Amino acid sequence: MQLLRRGDSGPAVREIRATLRQLGLLPDLPAESPESTAFDHEIDHAVRVFQQRRGLITDGVVGPDTARALREAGWSLGDRMLSFTLSTPTTGDDVAMLQERLLELGYDPGRPSGAFDQRTEQALMRFQRDYGMVPDGMCGPETLRALRQLGRKVTGGRPHLLREQELLRRAGPRMRGKRIVIDPGHGGPDRGVEVGGVTEADLMWDLARRLVGRMSATGMEALLTRPETGNPPEAERAQFANDVGADLVVSLHTDASFSPHAQGLATYFFGNGSGTTSNVGGALAGLIQRELLTRTSMVDCRSQPCTWEMVRRTRMPTVRIETGYLTHLGDRRKLLDPGFRDVVAEGILVAVKRLYLLGQDDQPTGTFTFNDVLAREQIRAV
Asked: How far apart are alpha carbons 240 and 269 in whole angstroms?
Protein backbone atom coordinates (compact mmCIF):
# COMPACT_ATOMS: atom_id res chain seq x y z
CA MET A 1 0.00 0.00 0.00
CA GLN A 2 0.98 3.66 -0.38
CA LEU A 3 2.71 5.11 2.68
CA LEU A 4 1.00 8.22 3.98
CA ARG A 5 2.84 10.85 5.99
CA ARG A 6 2.80 14.54 6.83
CA GLY A 7 2.41 16.66 3.67
CA ASP A 8 0.27 14.11 1.79
CA SER A 9 -3.37 14.72 0.89
CA GLY A 10 -6.34 12.96 -0.67
CA PRO A 11 -9.34 10.74 0.13
CA ALA A 12 -7.19 8.21 2.04
CA VAL A 13 -6.10 10.97 4.41
CA ARG A 14 -9.76 11.93 4.95
CA GLU A 15 -10.47 8.33 6.02
CA ILE A 16 -7.54 8.39 8.44
CA ARG A 17 -8.77 11.67 9.90
CA ALA A 18 -12.29 10.22 10.33
CA THR A 19 -10.97 7.16 12.17
CA LEU A 20 -8.74 9.24 14.45
CA ARG A 21 -11.69 11.53 15.20
CA GLN A 22 -13.84 8.48 16.01
CA LEU A 23 -11.15 7.33 18.44
CA GLY A 24 -11.13 10.71 20.16
CA LEU A 25 -7.65 11.63 18.97
CA LEU A 26 -8.72 14.54 16.74
CA PRO A 27 -11.34 17.29 17.07
CA ASP A 28 -14.29 17.45 14.71
CA LEU A 29 -13.69 19.15 11.36
CA PRO A 30 -16.34 19.89 8.72
CA ALA A 31 -16.16 17.27 5.95
CA GLU A 32 -16.16 19.98 3.27
CA SER A 33 -13.18 21.75 4.82
CA PRO A 34 -10.05 21.73 2.58
CA GLU A 35 -8.05 20.62 5.63
CA SER A 36 -10.06 17.39 5.85
CA THR A 37 -7.90 15.79 3.14
CA ALA A 38 -4.56 17.20 4.35
CA PHE A 39 -2.09 15.15 6.41
CA ASP A 40 -1.12 18.05 8.67
CA HIS A 41 0.73 18.36 11.98
CA GLU A 42 -2.47 17.48 13.92
CA ILE A 43 -2.86 14.16 12.10
CA ASP A 44 0.85 13.49 12.44
CA HIS A 45 0.62 13.95 16.21
CA ALA A 46 -2.57 11.89 16.49
CA VAL A 47 -1.05 9.04 14.45
CA ARG A 48 2.01 9.01 16.71
CA VAL A 49 -0.18 8.86 19.82
CA PHE A 50 -2.17 6.00 18.28
CA GLN A 51 1.00 4.13 17.29
CA GLN A 52 2.44 4.46 20.77
CA ARG A 53 -0.75 3.11 22.35
CA ARG A 54 -0.83 0.17 19.92
CA GLY A 55 2.77 -0.96 20.24
CA LEU A 56 3.74 0.20 16.75
CA ILE A 57 6.80 2.10 15.58
CA THR A 58 6.05 5.74 16.51
CA ASP A 59 7.07 7.45 13.28
CA GLY A 60 3.86 9.23 12.22
CA VAL A 61 3.78 7.24 8.98
CA VAL A 62 0.64 5.28 8.06
CA GLY A 63 2.06 2.10 6.54
CA PRO A 64 0.54 -1.41 6.41
CA ASP A 65 0.73 -2.10 10.17
CA THR A 66 -0.68 1.27 11.23
CA ALA A 67 -3.40 1.14 8.54
CA ARG A 68 -4.41 -2.33 9.72
CA ALA A 69 -4.50 -1.18 13.35
CA LEU A 70 -6.61 1.87 12.45
CA ARG A 71 -9.13 -0.34 10.61
CA GLU A 72 -9.36 -2.73 13.54
CA ALA A 73 -9.69 0.06 16.11
CA GLY A 74 -12.91 1.22 14.45
CA TRP A 75 -14.86 -1.85 15.60
CA SER A 76 -16.56 -2.26 18.99
CA LEU A 77 -18.21 -5.43 20.27
CA GLY A 78 -21.74 -5.52 18.88
CA ASP A 79 -21.04 -3.58 15.70
CA ARG A 80 -21.16 -6.72 13.57
CA MET A 81 -21.68 -10.47 13.64
CA LEU A 82 -18.49 -12.32 14.53
CA SER A 83 -17.61 -15.84 13.39
CA PHE A 84 -14.66 -17.90 12.22
CA THR A 85 -13.80 -17.93 8.52
CA LEU A 86 -10.83 -19.99 7.37
CA SER A 87 -9.83 -17.96 4.31
CA THR A 88 -9.95 -14.45 5.80
CA PRO A 89 -10.20 -14.49 9.63
CA THR A 90 -12.09 -11.55 11.10
CA THR A 91 -9.87 -9.11 12.99
CA GLY A 92 -10.64 -6.06 15.06
CA ASP A 93 -10.94 -4.56 18.51
CA ASP A 94 -14.39 -6.14 18.80
CA VAL A 95 -12.80 -9.58 18.48
CA ALA A 96 -10.26 -8.69 21.18
CA MET A 97 -13.13 -7.53 23.43
CA LEU A 98 -14.91 -10.86 22.85
CA GLN A 99 -11.75 -12.80 23.67
CA GLU A 100 -11.21 -10.78 26.87
CA ARG A 101 -14.83 -11.38 27.92
CA LEU A 102 -14.57 -15.12 27.34
CA LEU A 103 -11.40 -15.21 29.44
CA GLU A 104 -13.17 -13.39 32.26
CA LEU A 105 -15.93 -16.01 32.16
CA GLY A 106 -13.46 -18.88 32.41
CA TYR A 107 -13.25 -19.90 28.75
CA ASP A 108 -9.91 -20.02 26.96
CA PRO A 109 -9.70 -18.46 23.49
CA GLY A 110 -5.94 -18.07 23.87
CA ARG A 111 -4.19 -14.72 23.79
CA PRO A 112 -6.57 -11.80 23.08
CA SER A 113 -4.95 -11.09 19.71
CA GLY A 114 -7.95 -9.52 18.01
CA ALA A 115 -8.08 -12.30 15.40
CA PHE A 116 -11.11 -14.65 15.40
CA ASP A 117 -9.43 -18.03 15.01
CA GLN A 118 -10.56 -21.62 15.61
CA ARG A 119 -9.56 -21.48 19.26
CA THR A 120 -11.80 -18.46 19.76
CA GLU A 121 -14.63 -20.25 17.96
CA GLN A 122 -14.24 -23.32 20.19
CA ALA A 123 -14.22 -21.20 23.36
CA LEU A 124 -17.34 -19.35 22.19
CA MET A 125 -19.11 -22.63 21.38
CA ARG A 126 -18.31 -23.98 24.87
CA PHE A 127 -19.77 -20.83 26.39
CA GLN A 128 -22.91 -21.08 24.24
CA ARG A 129 -23.37 -24.77 25.08
CA ASP A 130 -22.99 -24.17 28.84
CA TYR A 131 -25.55 -21.38 28.81
CA GLY A 132 -28.24 -23.17 26.82
CA MET A 133 -27.74 -21.53 23.46
CA VAL A 134 -27.22 -23.10 20.05
CA PRO A 135 -23.42 -23.69 19.92
CA ASP A 136 -22.90 -22.25 16.44
CA GLY A 137 -19.72 -20.31 17.21
CA MET A 138 -21.29 -17.06 16.00
CA CYS A 139 -21.36 -13.98 18.20
CA GLY A 140 -24.72 -12.39 17.44
CA PRO A 141 -27.33 -10.46 19.49
CA GLU A 142 -28.36 -13.39 21.74
CA THR A 143 -24.77 -14.32 22.56
CA LEU A 144 -23.89 -10.67 23.20
CA ARG A 145 -26.77 -10.31 25.68
CA ALA A 146 -25.59 -13.36 27.59
CA LEU A 147 -21.98 -12.14 27.62
CA ARG A 148 -23.05 -8.78 29.03
CA GLN A 149 -25.41 -10.18 31.67
CA LEU A 150 -22.99 -12.62 33.28
CA GLY A 151 -20.44 -11.69 35.93
CA ARG A 152 -16.77 -12.63 35.89
CA LYS A 153 -15.73 -16.12 36.98
CA VAL A 154 -12.00 -15.40 36.86
CA THR A 155 -10.64 -12.60 39.04
CA GLY A 156 -7.29 -11.51 40.41
CA GLY A 157 -5.16 -11.70 37.30
CA ARG A 158 -5.13 -12.56 33.62
CA PRO A 159 -5.64 -16.30 33.09
CA HIS A 160 -3.87 -16.45 29.71
CA LEU A 161 -0.71 -15.08 31.37
CA LEU A 162 -0.92 -17.65 34.14
CA ARG A 163 -1.35 -20.45 31.60
CA GLU A 164 1.68 -19.24 29.64
CA GLN A 165 3.82 -19.15 32.79
CA GLU A 166 2.62 -22.57 33.92
CA LEU A 167 3.47 -24.10 30.52
CA LEU A 168 6.99 -22.68 30.84
CA ARG A 169 7.37 -24.12 34.34
CA ARG A 170 6.19 -27.57 33.25
CA ALA A 171 8.48 -27.57 30.20
CA GLY A 172 11.53 -28.13 32.40
CA PRO A 173 15.10 -26.86 31.96
CA ARG A 174 16.24 -29.13 29.13
CA MET A 175 16.41 -27.90 25.55
CA ARG A 176 15.99 -31.37 24.04
CA GLY A 177 12.53 -32.02 22.66
CA LYS A 178 11.47 -28.40 22.55
CA ARG A 179 10.37 -26.95 19.21
CA ILE A 180 11.45 -23.47 18.15
CA VAL A 181 10.49 -21.64 14.97
CA ILE A 182 13.07 -19.24 13.52
CA ASP A 183 11.70 -16.53 11.25
CA PRO A 184 14.26 -14.80 9.00
CA GLY A 185 12.61 -11.55 7.92
CA HIS A 186 11.64 -10.79 4.30
CA GLY A 187 12.95 -13.05 1.48
CA GLY A 188 12.26 -13.70 -2.18
CA PRO A 189 11.67 -10.46 -4.10
CA ASP A 190 11.28 -8.57 -0.81
CA ARG A 191 14.87 -7.85 0.24
CA GLY A 192 13.93 -5.72 3.25
CA VAL A 193 16.43 -2.97 4.10
CA GLU A 194 19.10 -2.68 1.38
CA VAL A 195 22.21 -0.52 1.65
CA GLY A 196 25.18 -0.70 -0.69
CA GLY A 197 24.19 -4.10 -2.06
CA VAL A 198 23.76 -5.56 1.44
CA THR A 199 20.23 -6.81 2.12
CA GLU A 200 18.35 -7.59 5.31
CA ALA A 201 16.91 -10.76 3.76
CA ASP A 202 20.35 -12.27 3.05
CA LEU A 203 21.86 -11.35 6.41
CA MET A 204 18.90 -12.67 8.40
CA TRP A 205 18.82 -15.89 6.38
CA ASP A 206 22.48 -16.46 7.25
CA LEU A 207 21.87 -15.62 10.93
CA ALA A 208 18.85 -17.94 11.00
CA ARG A 209 20.89 -20.85 9.62
CA ARG A 210 23.57 -20.29 12.26
CA LEU A 211 20.91 -20.24 14.97
CA VAL A 212 19.18 -23.35 13.63
CA GLY A 213 22.49 -25.22 13.70
CA ARG A 214 23.12 -24.34 17.34
CA MET A 215 19.56 -25.06 18.42
CA SER A 216 19.63 -28.46 16.69
CA ALA A 217 22.91 -29.34 18.38
CA THR A 218 21.23 -28.99 21.79
CA GLY A 219 18.45 -31.39 20.81
CA MET A 220 15.85 -28.76 20.01
CA GLU A 221 13.76 -29.08 16.87
CA ALA A 222 14.41 -25.85 14.97
CA LEU A 223 12.20 -24.95 12.00
CA LEU A 224 12.38 -22.08 9.51
CA THR A 225 9.31 -20.11 8.39
CA ARG A 226 10.56 -19.68 4.83
CA PRO A 227 12.95 -21.13 2.24
CA GLU A 228 15.91 -19.02 1.16
CA THR A 229 14.07 -17.65 -1.88
CA GLY A 230 10.56 -17.45 -0.38
CA ASN A 231 8.61 -14.70 1.36
CA PRO A 232 5.31 -15.88 2.89
CA PRO A 233 3.13 -13.18 4.50
CA GLU A 234 3.54 -12.68 8.23
CA ALA A 235 0.09 -14.16 8.90
CA GLU A 236 1.16 -17.38 7.11
CA ARG A 237 4.42 -17.51 9.05
CA ALA A 238 2.48 -17.17 12.30
CA GLN A 239 0.03 -19.87 11.23
CA PHE A 240 2.94 -22.17 10.42
CA ALA A 241 4.25 -21.74 13.97
CA ASN A 242 0.77 -22.44 15.36
CA ASP A 243 0.28 -25.51 13.15
CA VAL A 244 3.56 -27.14 14.17
CA GLY A 245 2.92 -26.43 17.85
CA ALA A 246 6.08 -24.41 18.44
CA ASP A 247 7.14 -23.66 22.01
CA LEU A 248 8.82 -20.38 21.02
CA VAL A 249 9.22 -18.18 17.95
CA VAL A 250 12.19 -15.92 17.22
CA SER A 251 11.84 -13.45 14.33
CA LEU A 252 15.02 -11.87 12.95
CA HIS A 253 15.22 -8.43 11.35
CA THR A 254 17.42 -5.39 10.87
CA ASP A 255 16.25 -1.79 11.13
CA ALA A 256 16.63 1.35 9.02
CA SER A 257 16.30 5.09 9.49
CA PHE A 258 16.47 8.30 7.49
CA SER A 259 19.02 9.44 10.06
CA PRO A 260 22.50 7.94 9.57
CA HIS A 261 23.03 8.29 13.33
CA ALA A 262 20.26 5.85 14.34
CA GLN A 263 21.82 2.64 15.64
CA GLY A 264 21.38 -0.13 18.14
CA LEU A 265 19.62 -3.31 19.14
CA ALA A 266 15.96 -3.74 20.13
CA THR A 267 13.75 -6.70 21.00
CA TYR A 268 9.95 -6.84 20.83
CA PHE A 269 7.25 -9.03 22.37
CA PHE A 270 3.45 -9.06 22.28
CA GLY A 271 1.71 -6.25 24.16
CA ASN A 272 -1.29 -4.28 22.93
CA GLY A 273 -1.07 -1.24 25.20
CA SER A 274 -4.25 -2.09 27.13
CA GLY A 275 -2.79 -4.50 29.65
CA THR A 276 -2.66 -7.63 27.50
CA THR A 277 0.93 -8.80 27.20
CA SER A 278 2.94 -11.97 26.88
CA ASN A 279 4.85 -12.26 30.16
CA VAL A 280 7.01 -15.11 28.91
CA GLY A 281 7.61 -13.30 25.63
CA GLY A 282 8.63 -10.22 27.60
CA ALA A 283 10.97 -12.28 29.76
CA LEU A 284 12.63 -13.88 26.71
CA ALA A 285 12.95 -10.51 24.95
CA GLY A 286 14.62 -9.07 28.04
CA LEU A 287 17.04 -11.99 28.31
CA ILE A 288 17.97 -11.73 24.63
CA GLN A 289 18.41 -7.96 24.89
CA ARG A 290 20.75 -8.23 27.87
CA GLU A 291 22.77 -11.12 26.44
CA LEU A 292 23.33 -9.42 23.09
CA LEU A 293 24.14 -6.02 24.61
CA THR A 294 26.76 -7.59 26.86
CA ARG A 295 28.30 -9.62 24.04
CA THR A 296 28.24 -6.97 21.28
CA SER A 297 28.40 -3.56 23.07
CA MET A 298 25.66 -2.26 20.76
CA VAL A 299 23.49 0.73 21.66
CA ASP A 300 20.52 -0.28 23.83
CA CYS A 301 17.20 0.48 22.09
CA ARG A 302 15.41 -1.49 24.80
CA SER A 303 12.90 -4.31 24.94
CA GLN A 304 9.38 -3.18 24.02
CA PRO A 305 5.82 -4.50 23.51
CA CYS A 306 4.38 -4.49 20.00
CA THR A 307 1.39 -5.70 17.96
CA TRP A 308 3.00 -6.69 14.66
CA GLU A 309 1.28 -9.55 12.85
CA MET A 310 3.94 -12.19 13.51
CA VAL A 311 3.99 -11.42 17.22
CA ARG A 312 0.26 -11.11 17.91
CA ARG A 313 -1.02 -13.99 15.71
CA THR A 314 1.20 -16.66 17.25
CA ARG A 315 -0.22 -18.60 20.20
CA MET A 316 3.15 -19.14 21.84
CA PRO A 317 5.70 -16.62 23.22
CA THR A 318 7.23 -14.78 20.25
CA VAL A 319 10.01 -12.22 20.08
CA ARG A 320 11.24 -10.07 17.23
CA ILE A 321 14.87 -8.97 17.27
CA GLU A 322 16.06 -5.90 15.40
CA THR A 323 19.75 -6.76 15.25
CA GLY A 324 20.97 -3.30 14.31
CA TYR A 325 20.54 -0.56 11.70
CA LEU A 326 21.82 -1.36 8.22
CA THR A 327 21.68 2.38 7.57
CA HIS A 328 24.28 2.98 10.30
CA LEU A 329 27.90 2.47 9.23
CA GLY A 330 29.02 0.91 12.52
CA ASP A 331 26.08 -1.49 12.82
CA ARG A 332 26.42 -2.46 9.15
CA ARG A 333 30.09 -3.32 9.59
CA LYS A 334 29.23 -5.57 12.51
CA LEU A 335 26.39 -7.31 10.68
CA LEU A 336 28.65 -8.00 7.69
CA ASP A 337 31.11 -9.84 9.97
CA PRO A 338 30.33 -13.60 10.13
CA GLY A 339 31.97 -13.69 13.57
CA PHE A 340 29.50 -11.11 14.82
CA ARG A 341 26.57 -13.16 13.51
CA ASP A 342 27.99 -16.16 15.39
CA VAL A 343 28.05 -14.09 18.58
CA VAL A 344 24.42 -13.05 18.05
CA ALA A 345 23.33 -16.66 17.40
CA GLU A 346 25.09 -17.83 20.58
CA GLY A 347 23.54 -15.02 22.61
CA ILE A 348 20.02 -15.92 21.45
CA LEU A 349 20.60 -19.61 22.22
CA VAL A 350 21.88 -18.82 25.71
CA ALA A 351 18.91 -16.52 26.38
CA VAL A 352 16.50 -19.32 25.46
CA LYS A 353 18.34 -21.70 27.77
CA ARG A 354 18.21 -19.17 30.61
CA LEU A 355 14.48 -18.74 30.05
CA TYR A 356 13.91 -22.43 30.70
CA LEU A 357 16.24 -22.46 33.71
CA LEU A 358 13.82 -20.08 35.47
CA GLY A 359 16.70 -18.52 37.36
CA GLN A 360 17.92 -21.86 38.75
CA ASP A 361 21.55 -22.99 38.28
CA ASP A 362 22.12 -19.97 36.02
CA GLN A 363 25.22 -17.92 35.22
CA PRO A 364 25.81 -14.14 34.97
CA THR A 365 24.75 -12.43 31.75
CA GLY A 366 27.32 -12.79 28.98
CA THR A 367 29.31 -15.62 30.60
CA PHE A 368 27.23 -18.62 29.44
CA THR A 369 28.69 -20.15 26.25
CA PHE A 370 27.41 -22.53 23.59
CA ASN A 371 29.74 -25.23 24.98
CA ASP A 372 28.33 -24.65 28.48
CA VAL A 373 24.81 -25.23 27.14
CA LEU A 374 25.88 -28.42 25.35
CA ALA A 375 27.66 -29.70 28.45
CA ARG A 376 24.59 -29.17 30.62
CA GLU A 377 22.34 -30.90 28.11
CA GLN A 378 24.68 -33.90 28.00
CA ILE A 379 24.87 -34.13 31.80
CA ARG A 380 21.10 -34.13 32.11
CA ALA A 381 20.81 -36.75 29.35
CA VAL A 382 22.97 -39.22 31.27
From this structure: 18
